[in-house]
Amino acid sequence: MISKTEQILYALKSRMEAISNVSVERNSAVPEKIPTGGLIVLRDGNADEPEQPLGGFGGVYCRQDAEIEIYVENGDPTVRDVAFDDLLQQIGVVLEADPTLGGLAFGLTYGRPEIDTEAVIGGPAIKAGTLIIAIEFEADTPLG
């Protein structure tokens, strides 16, 4: 049996895979070369301490802070910035289309990513950002 947390992370990855021309991976090391359309790496992130209702009846309320890392590589800073922003906007559209992830979660919240541009010796620079997605849901046990 797959935990509710794993079901949610799988659903989130599936939503990211709906974005065209981008590679999507989960919990992988960042490759040395970023694919042409960009790269999204979903990381499991951190879980908050689960909360049980008084009396021990019902499920456990959980929060998982998943991380979506976004990578775009291009030698032209303008092209790189536009490609990164486009990919970020597409992620926003996907997240807003179904914030309950098919009924698995109460909802999700997120803000602007932390963004950094990294120089690569002998190659085009990489613009990267990490978007934290707070996912709130109910599970049967504290193990989610």
Describe the structure.
- The chain has 144 residues and is α+β, with helices and mostly antiparallel strands.
- The chain has two helices and six strands; from the N terminus they run αβββαβββ.
- Strands 1, 2, 3, 4, 5 and 6 form a six-stranded mixed sheet that branches.
- The longest helix is centred in the middle third of the chain and has 21 residues, at 77-97.
- The relative contact order is 0.24.
Radius of gyration: 17 Å
Per CATH, the class reads Alpha Beta
Question: Alpha-carbon distance between the termini?
Answer: 11 Å
Q: How much strand content do the residues show?
A: 35-45%
Strand runs, count: 6
**How many individual helices?**
2
| CATH architecture assignment name | 2-Layer Sandwich
Total number of domains: 1
Percent helix, as a range, is: 10-25%
The largest sheet, given as strand count, sense and whether it forms a barrel, is: 6 strands, mixed
Task: Classify the fold: give the CATH topology.
Answer: STM4215-like
Q: Segments where pLDDT lies below 50 for 5+ residues?
A: none
